[in-house]
């Protein structure tokens, strides 16, 4: 009984700990990369690329096929052993093995293997880009949760101040130092703040649910994230010029690598298409044998009368008969030879070379070559466009990061100013030199300044991380 209670307590503690788990950003990113459906589909694309390569390598191996047949014939048919027409019932069997090997096919097999390797590399680049995009989505969703939580804490902390002011104002009103209207004003402010707190709590829940859905986590109620320890971490990326980041992005970003791989694939497809102009040389080898259980006839010399004399013609001038001596044979029926003996006696082989030269095929090869040339030009244009898009995106990200930093600095200065104004208004209100309405307005401006600073801070963090991704820092190694 005691052991059962201990086990139950341990189980309860483990469940409680699991429910209280708070996910870090890195854990969220890794979980998304392991469970995202699009990532899983891209991994299947990689497996398809491996199969394509296996098939391409298999083209260098000889083709080997074997076949066997067994039949029973009744009535008039040709004996496969004697090749004589017979009216009987017999069993026959045959077997053959054929081997073929392509000696030359215009280098298409070699280039198909090279294309399969390029295709796998392109699939890997697409997977890496998808991982970067998903990591960015997760980071954005995660920072949105942190922002909403920070705003909620601002509202709660300021409402706690409001509660203190309500208690102080009630005492001053009862003492006759302040009019009752000041108390009503602060109570109205308290009601508005509580409504804002409820809205902020809803925003936190909605952002948590959105992040959980992105991570494919269904336990929305117990899902939560770690909301401490996240600050602005700049390893010097913000001080770099846009051109420096662009040059690094062209070397590391998957968008460019994907476009370059597509150009290489188009070039390889063109080489494969041109290979169809060349002849194909193949070698072949075949082995076959057969068996039949039918009886056959043989001719043997009569031992009692080994020769016989027969007239074979006449002399035209004299009419004298021309005779000849021939072996005197007797026809005898014999049974079928043993199975393995027949296989040995009746076997045969064939081998040789086959040359196929394309001469006229309705311009099919020429059309295919021209089509692949167009695809190559299109791929080059897409590569050029990808480079232009990357430059534009990096410039935009660079400008956004600079602007976000300036907004963050301005928000800090605004908060400092509002802090001084709020402290001054609070001192004046405490001594009765200002009314509750003016104090509430100052407090509201102070609250808004805190919220705007939070928004500017996390907006700058996100845009700074986007810039770091363009610089080639892996998503899993971003620092917060």
Automatic annotation (TrEMBL):
User: Can you supply one Gene Ontology CC term for this chain's record?
Assistant: efflux pump complex
Q: Supply the InterPro entries for this chain.
A: OMP_efflux (IPR003423), TolC-like (IPR051906)
Is Translocase given among the entry's keywords?
Answer: no
Chief site of localization: membrane
Q: One GO molecular function term? A: porin activity
Subcellular location(s): the record lists: Cell outer membrane
Q: Would the keyword Transmembrane turn up in this protein's UniProt record?
A: yes
Q: What is this protein called?
A: Outer membrane protein
Name the source's superkingdom: Bacteria
Kindly indicate where the leader peptide sits in this chain: 1-18
**Family, per the entry?**
Belongs to the outer membrane factor (OMF) (TC 1.B.17) family.
Keywords attached to this Swiss-Prot or TrEMBL record, sorted alphabetically, are: Cell outer membrane, Coiled coil, Membrane, Signal, Transmembrane, Transmembrane beta strand, Transport
Q: Which Gene3D superfamilies match?
A: Outer membrane efflux proteins (OEP)
Coiled coil location: 242-269
